[in-house]
């Protein structure tokens, strides 16, 4: 895999910042009795907006779903977890760490390129072209977006051929930033993240038959100190008010409660 030297310091800084943020958030949540919600990085813009219409006092901890899952397994006092993949939530359930779970949202996988790039792509097979040197995707072991990208490319029969071009990110926001900055020639992310940026073009939408359904489940952690508030928050995420915001950002809504 190729690396992005310019991003190394940024990645380290972001990782350190996330750790400090989680520590301070945990302390705040424990002392104030408010909710601490861990959510996939791809949900950051929409959940920040939803927070403005919900009266619940919430602190968010955003990151890759795999990393957030591990934090919960290691005892981080999270109240609610929203994952970008069912695998992470199912693992927590199998370990007896959830008191409730439900499927909340759906998403789609897209190919993006920098808006300023002279290279114009119209399908995923063109990633094989010689003028495509670097392709950003999520890390394929812990980042659901990377796992979906790998699955789609494998089903197209081109994953192995592209291995030397990959730049792996620790979450989808990294992939988006890499494409926005022109550090890579293309990237594969969720359509919701692509729509949030005016610096990238959606070059192609992946056929949904190429990858497993992208489902965002929500779960309440069994060890939550605020189970009633957690239940209320999860119920709010399924209301028409919250659903309209999710849809505005391009998410598919699985169920809506009146």
Write out key terms for the chains shown.
258 residues, globular, single chain, 2 domains, D-Maltodextrin-Binding Protein, domain 2, 11 strands, alpha/beta, 41% helix, 6-stranded mixed beta sheet, 5-stranded mixed beta sheet, 10 helices
Structure description:
The chain is an alpha/beta fold and about 260 residues long. It has 2 domains: about 5-105 and about 215-255, Periplasmic binding protein-like II (D-Maltodextrin-Binding Protein, domain 2), CATH 3.40.190; about 110-210, D-Maltodextrin-Binding Protein, domain 2 (3-Layer(aba) Sandwich), CATH 3.40.190.10. The protein has 10 helices and 11 strands. The protein has helices spanning about 5-30, 45-50, 65-75, 85-95, 145-155, 160, 170-180, 190-195, 225-235, 240-250, and strands spanning about 35-40, 60-65, 80, 100-105, 110-115, 135-140, 165-170, 185-190, 200-205, 215-220, 250-255. Strand 1, helix 2 and strand 2 form a beta-alpha-beta unit. Helix 3 runs parallel beside helix 4 (about 85-95). It is globular and about 55 Å long. It starts with a helix and ends in a 5-residue tail after the last strand.
CATH top-level class of the largest domain: Alpha Beta
Give the overall silhouette: globular
Averaged pLDDT: 89
User: In DSSP terms, counting alpha (H) and pi (I) runs of 4 or more, how many helices?
Assistant: 10
Q: Which architecture of the largest domain does the CATH hierarchy give at level 2? A: 3-Layer(aba) Sandwich
Percent of residues in beta strands:
15-25%
- Biggest sheet, open or closed, and with what strands and sense? 6 strands, mixed
Question: Ends: how far apart?
Answer: 48 Å
Order of neighbouring strands in the sheet with most strands? 2-1-3-10-4-11
Quaternary status: single chain
Q: Given the helix and strand composition, which structural class is it? A: alpha/beta
CATH superfamily of the largest domain: Periplasmic binding protein-like II
Low-confidence runs of at least 5 consecutive residues: 7-32
- The gyration radius over C-alpha positions equals 18 Å
Estimate the helix proportion, in percent.
Answer: 40-55%
The CATH topology of the largest domain is D-Maltodextrin-Binding Protein, domain 2
Q: How do the helices and strands follow one another from N- to C-terminus?
A: HEHEHEHEEEHHEHEHEEHHE
Number of separate strands: 11
- How many independent structural domains? 2
């Amino acid at each position: 895999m190729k690396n992005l030297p310019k991003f190394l310091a940024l990645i380290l800084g972001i990782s350190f910042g996330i750790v400090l943020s989680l520590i301070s958030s945990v302390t705040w949540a424990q002392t104030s009795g408010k909710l601490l919600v861990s959510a996939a990085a791809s949900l950051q813009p929409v959940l920040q907006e939803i927070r403005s219409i919900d009266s619940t006092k919430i602190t968010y901890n955003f990151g890759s779903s795999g990393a957030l899952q591990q934090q919960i397994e290691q005892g981080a006092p999270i109240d609610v977890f929203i994952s970008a993949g069912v695998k992470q939530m199912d693992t927590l359930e199998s370990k007896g760490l959830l008191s409730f779970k439900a499927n909340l949202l759906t998403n789609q996988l897209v190919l993006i390129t920098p808006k300023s790039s002279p290279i114009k792509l119209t399908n995923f097979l063109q990633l094989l072209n010689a003028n495509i040197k670097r392709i950003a995707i999520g890390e394929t072991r812990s980042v659901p977006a990377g796992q979906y990208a790998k699955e789609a490319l494998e089903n197209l029969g081109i994953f192995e051929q592209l291995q030397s071009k990959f730049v792996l990110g620790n979450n989808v926001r990294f992939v988006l930033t890499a494409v926005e900055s022109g550090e890579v020639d293309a990237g594969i992310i969720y359509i919701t993240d692509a729509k949030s940026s005016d610096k990238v073009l959606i070059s192609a939408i992946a056929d949904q038959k190429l990858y497993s359904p992208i489902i965002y489940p929500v779960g309440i952690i069994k060890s939550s100190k605020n189970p009633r508030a957690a239940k209320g928050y999860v119920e709010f995420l399924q209301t028409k008010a919250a659903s309209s915001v999710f849809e505005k950002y391009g998410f598919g809504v699985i169920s809506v409660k009146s």
